From TrEMBL:
Keywords: Membrane, Mitochondrion, Mitochondrion outer membrane, Repeat, Transmembrane, Transmembrane helix, Transport. Belongs to the mitochondrial carrier (TC 2.A.29) family. This is Mitochondrial carrier 2. The keyword Lyase does not apply. It comes from Paragonimus heterotremus. PANTHER family: LD43650P, MITOCHONDRIAL CARRIER HOMOLOG. It is a multi-pass membrane protein.
Length: 349
């Protein structure tokens, strides 16, 4: 291998492209992206300060369909929020909590990559070398195999995990799927307190409440208003949605590769594109759970934005209400946001 492709770090030889790029500059970049995250959370909470407008689709112009009403797009919404509440408020609100979420997610992403290398070593073993007990305990081979990388030193493809799930034997696939789901469960569980604090800080922008202004104040306010359990408000629907998406995605990828395309055929761009479509389709399917979890995270808080969540005793009744009222896709589309609330329709000219 070309020695220029390698460098030594902490006594280990690594490729330059494997170095960490999670420095302070990326967290500063997240701060400048924070206005869009803040707007997205406010939309999820049902805060729509702008009146909907009439949208004429090409079919409506031809008289084939009727015009629909939509809220202004996310860009104009963000601009309005900045004009109303000030640039610094929009830039700084919830930014520390969101950075903690991103940092924790990055850690789990690296753990997932590490486990992917171990999974490759399982796949490379013959059935005789891989016992049932080894797969159950995960002790079959904890040393990453060099076969998981190309011989020319390039990094594995972007769809490496999908390929591993598709090529693995049934018992190994089940073990890998359980591990992937477990990592997702731990990620959701450990980031939920920061998500609750972030959402409540952003929600305080609506009513101007000051008890959630700073991160330490927000943590104390959650404890005072809901106790320790308040940090896990909305955990169940969020966790349920992520588990459904994870299990269904990898299972669907395996079915398509083995049952339709054929395992002997090499991965093609069309297969990768199909898996991307499956991923976004599943994200759209489980989005009501994610939305419900976001709204439930402010339940019991002394916030104006908590009025909707406080009307429901549990997350199931809230999810049914969102679905029946056409609000289940609130915040999913950045443009043509057609989830117009009934109380806003009389404002349309």
């Amino acid at each position: 291998m070309n020695k220029h492709l390698l460098e030594e770090r902490n006594g280990l030889v690594t490729r330059p492209e494997e170095k960490s790029y999670s420095g302070i500059e990326f967290y500063l970049l997240r701060m400048f992206v924070n206005p869009f995250r803040l707007s997205w959370i406010l939309i999820r909470l049902g805060h729509e300060p702008l009146s909907p407008v009439r949208f004429h689709s090409p079919l409506a112009l031809l008289g084939l369909t009727t015009p629909i009403y939509v809220y202004p797009n996310i860009l104009y919404y963000t601009y309005h929020i900045i004009r109303t509440h000030g640039l610094w408020t929009v830039l700084s609100t919830g930014v520390f909590a969101s950075a903690c979420i991103d940092f924790a997610s990055e850690i789990f992403h690296r753990v997932f990559q590490r486990r992917s290398k171990v999974w490759q070593s399982w796949i490379n073993l013959s059935p005789d070398d891989l016992s049932v007990n080894d797969v159950r305990t995960g002790q079959c081979d904890e040393t990453p195999n060099n076969d998981s990388e190309d011989s020319d030193g390039h990094r594995p493809s972007a769809f490496q995990v999908e390929s591993q799930m598709e090529e693995a034997r049934p018992l190994v696939f089940v073990r890998m799927l359980i591990e992937a789901s477990s990592l997702k469960v731990w990620e959701i569980f450990l980031t939920q307190p920061f998500l609750v604090v972030m959402v409540r800080q952003i929600a305080s922008v609506i009513g101007g409440e000051v008890q959630y202004y700073w991160f330490p104040m927000a943590v104390l306010s959650v404890c005072k208003e809901n106790g320790f359990g308040g940090f896990f408000q909305g955990l169940v629907p969020r966790l349920l949605g992520e588990l459904i998406a994870t299990v269904a995605y990898f299972s669907a990828c395996r079915f398509i590769r083995r049952g339709i395309v054929g395992l002997k055929r090499k991965r093609t761009a069309s297969l990768s594109a199909a898996e991307v479509l499956i991923y976004f389709g599943l994200r759209n399917y489980v989005y009501p759970f994610e939305l419900t979890g976001c709204i439930q995270s402010v339940r019991g808080a002394k916030l104006v934005a908590a009025a909707e969540s406080n009307r429901f005793s549990d997350w199931r009744s809230l999810e049914r209400h969102l679905t029946s009222s056409g609000q289940a896709n609130r915040g999913w589309f950045p443009f043509l946001r057609s989830h117009v609330q009934p109380n806003h329709l009389p404002q349309v000219n």
